Amino acid sequence: MEHTNPFVPYAPDRYDEAEMIRRGREFFEHVDRRRSVRFFSDEAVPRECVELAVMAANTAPSGAHQQPWKFVLIGDAETKRRIRVAAEEEERQNYEGGRLTPEWRTALAPLETTSDKGYLEVVPWIVVCFAEKYGLRPDGARVKHYYVNESVGIACGLFITALHTMGLSTLTHTPNPMAFLSEICSRPGNERPYILFPVGYAAPDAEVPDLTRKPLDEALVHF
């Protein structure tokens, strides 16, 4: 088949049925051990680990291959404190100020979350993923991006999985509204905050809610 644009051969690995199932089960068991963490150690984490997780995120499929994401890595103590203060201010409006609806409070109750986000100063790294609403050419002209939310969501999923694979923990923190992150991280107007990730080792005494995940027969429908 002739192409107008450059193409390269692609030959993904193939396995027999038993090996496919073994590898799939092994991967499921690996990711099934992943949990969102709110109790972190202040132990240092190599910067390269976060960079590798972002490299994994960069392998995500995206609309028209426009890769509409930007990851901002923060390790400076003062910046982490600014983020904590701003995040807690927004969260107090949610938890103590009445922005959370009764239904939302009921849904959150099993997690026992509060407006206290002290872990943002404990972790060695904070990573903020920004979604690029549109691209910018060197001359300032806008470039339309397609399927931004879907693309960035997939990239963030790979980022989380890569951290877990390296033995690190994180949490998908989405303080609402998140505009303060654009200011603190000095991001341009074509980007909007998508998810804030505290990144580090789980604290030795970390606890997580005793939750169960949706079983296969509720997640999968056969036709």
Automatic annotation (TrEMBL):
<keyword id="KW-0560">Oxidoreductase</keyword>
<protein>
    <submittedName>
        <fullName>Nitroreductase</fullName>
    </submittedName>
</protein>
<dbReference type="InterPro" id="IPR000415">
    <property type="entry name" value="Nitroreductase-like"/>
</dbReference>
<dbReference type="InterPro" id="IPR029479">
    <property type="entry name" value="Nitroreductase"/>
</dbReference>
<feature type="domain" description="Nitroreductase">
    <location>
        <begin position="32"/>
        <end position="201"/>
    </location>
</feature>
<keyword id="KW-0288">FMN</keyword>
<dbReference type="InterPro" id="IPR050627">
    <property type="entry name" value="Nitroreductase/BluB"/>
</dbReference>
<dbReference type="Pfam" id="PF00881">
    <property type="entry name" value="Nitroreductase"/>
</dbReference>
<keyword id="KW-0285">Flavoprotein</keyword>
